Amino acid sequence: MPLKVLSVASEAVPIVKTGGLADVVGALPQALMPHGVEVTTLMPGYPAVLASLGRSKTVHVWDSLLGTPARLLSAKVDGHALLVLDAPGLYVREGKPYSDSAGHDWSDNWQRFAALGRAAADIAGGAIQRRGKTAVFDLVHAHDWQGAMACAYLRWAPFIDGQRIPSIVTIHNIAFQGWFGAEVFPRLGLPETAWSIDGIEYHGGISLLKAGLVTADAITTVSPTYAREIESPEFGMGLEGVVRARRGDVSGILNGIDAAVWGPEHDPNLKHAFSARSLAKRVENKRALEIEFGLDAGEGARAGGPIFIVVSRLTWQKGMDVLVEVIDHLVGMGARLAVLGSGDAGYEMALQQAAERHPGRVGIRIGYNEALSHRMQGGGDAILLPSRFEPCGLTQLYGLAYGCVPVVARTGGLADTVIDANPAALAAGVATGIQHDGVNYYALAAAVTRASELYNDEEQWGRMQRNGMKADFSWASSGSAYADLYRRLVASVA
Ligand code: ADP
Ligand code: GLC
What we know:
19 helices; Rossmann fold; 6-stranded parallel beta sheet; 2 domains
């Protein structure tokens, strides 16, 4: 019998995406199928989700789900089993998944995502669907603070007598913790005992992520290094004590990438497909990128210097303030820069000013553009990720797969996925990119210098590109790690 898992998340590719969380949630069903695990994803019925459904079936109606009428719809999108929580009062509105169009968080986010967790617990705990005497799902896998309340309701307000459904919470980013005031606690429908320092209470208010961390049977995060980092105040951001208290239950499982979507041999977004054996064809993509970003054209394969790219949320986490400071140095090295991103208005403006200051050397696109992000990975020479913290990071993995050499801060998943071109790694011929310690002007400027110098060594650079392209960042081993963890937890509560 396959293991049945309910994955609970606020976004999933190909339907709604604000970041890497969506890539991972969207990839998990396929990644787990070969391991005998059937994943159904539960997500909120935002307008974009409802519009994508095609044929759907109503499988349950709540007169009041935490005070709001709601329906549960079941559908298949791209072959993936979806359950959609259709609660128009919570989710049908103009704006983004967590905020209005101006970027202000929705004030009822506590209710929007507690309701998602409550629904997940109702579904998995057997309140609304059963297979005979047992629940429909063997395990619940919740993602980030938006999914975390599923674990809390399963533990604090269970349904099925004598059967406990185990749960996992995955931390994709501990910086987002779902904080709300104490006044919402009575409206969550939790027992009084949940209000404690070992429960949902957090500095006098509540944290939905904390509720998940203290109630889930296991905690995962998206890289082994980040799993260790979040035990410290610098990275744990207030939750380090909770993480340390559960040390034995915390593990890091690296994200994979979906080779069907991210493969330079068959990527329809690229002007020219290429592989590790036909890297020379890549130059056509680079020429196209120069035109697209208004960069000075080079003649010959290496003329014009390297093109560094950035595809990112423009935020402090991603070190965008330091990137802005380093641009003059980068241009001074004879390199060029192409940036695609959106985020904090201050960084957007500073990048635009840099592009005006350096016509032909710096190009910037503000916005979100999936196809362009593929073309940049397929034509850029190196991708910069000066992140202050990075739970896993996906764009360096896409860079590796596309021969766009990653230049990254040594933190989290970036530390775990890039092999620094230090002398030993170069001599052994195993380097795949460049790492720098610390995120500040000197560290990033030195990394850009090292990258530019290595770029001039055509043989070394080509070897780094090919090493990255041959590295395996598919879901194969991480899918198997999740499946093993699921089975262990299911066996432990049986
Ligand atoms: P995070 O989730 O912290 O933003 P990740 O590296 O895990 O970081 O994932 C970011 C995802 O969003 C990647 O798939 C990346 O390609 C994509 N992305 C980020 N910004 C943009 C953008 N402006 N246009 C297109 N894709 C973007
Ligand atoms: C978060 C993290 C990112 C990670 C992604 C998917 O958004 O910031 O590092 O890759 O989640 O797990």
